[in-house]
Amino acid sequence: MKGKRTNLDASACAIARSLGVIGDWWSLLIIRDALAGKRRFGEFQKSLGMAKNILSVRLQKLVEHGILATAPASDGTAYKEYVLTPKGKKLYLVLAALWQWGEEFCFAPGELTYDMVDRETQKPFQPLELKARDGRVLGPGDMRTLPRRASKAQRRASSSR
After folding, report:
1. Rounded to whole angstroms, how far apart are CA atoms 122 and 115?
2. pLDDT tens digits, one per residue of 85-97
3. Beta carbons of 41 and 30 less than 8 angstroms apart
4. C-alpha 14: how far from its chain's center?
5. Residue 109: exposure state from Cβ atoms within 10 A (0-12, 13-18, ≥19)
6. Contact (CB, 8 A) for 68 and 85
7. How many CB atoms lie within 10 A of CB 82?
8. What pLDDT is attached to residue 155?
9. Is 88 exposed, middle or buried (0-12, 13-18, 19+ CB in 10 A)?
10. 44-75, pLDDT tens digit by residue?
11. Over 117-156, what HEC string results?
């Protein structure tokens, strides 16, 4: 069926499951705006220019997955606000990595008109690096996946069968 998405909820891959939650561009842009301080439906809608029905569905999905939570409006009005949860705030690393990749590969020299900077110093931050536990910087050829060992509880459960 054209346009039907594959459900990745049961995937054994952490990347695939993550994409099932935040993998569409609207969700990442909503999270970007939330990290920048936007909290109300109207603020997201104005910033992103997306249809209200699509925004509503994306916000609800982010709430259902614990990325955003709803709260009463901070100004005491009847509106609700969308606030990042601790789980949602952790996505700042994903967005910073996407920014740095996009900055390097998606703009012609001089085309990018904004920098992502350290709020305190107002200076761009260092390129993100993946490091091994011993401090070595890792590259694409240094990564692989391995099956995890079962936890003690999982081993006990399987041995009692």
Report:
1. 9
2. 999 999 999 999 9
3. no
4. 13
5. exposed
6. yes
7. 22
8. 66
9. buried
10. 999 999 999 999 999 999 999 999 999 998 88
11. ECCCCCCECCCCCEECCCCCEECHHHCCCCCCCCCHHHHH
From first CA to last CA, the distance across the chain in angstroms is 41
For residues 55 and 69, the answer to whether their CB atoms sit within 8 Å is no
Q: What is the CA radius of gyration of the chain?
A: 20
**Per the structure block, which two tokens stand in for 61?**
């999905």
> Which pLDDT score is estimated for 6?
79
Of 20, 8, 12, 22, the closest CA to residue 93 belongs to 22
Q: What DSSP string describes the chain?
A: -TTPPPP-TT-S-HHHHHHHHH-SHHHHHHHHHHHTT--SHHHHHHHH---HHHHHHHHHHHHHTTSEEEEE-TTSSS-EEEEE-HHHHTTHHHHHHHHHHHHHHSS-TTT-----B-TTT-SBPPPP-EE-TTSPEE-GGG----PPPPPHHHHHHHHT-
Give the strand pairing for 130-131 and 80-84. unpaired
What's the rounded Cα separation, in Å, for the pair 75 and 24?
31
Residue pair 31/84 in contact (Cβ under 8 Å)? The answer is: yes
Percent of the chain with pLDDT over 90: 76
- Give me the residues paired with residue 72 across strands: 80
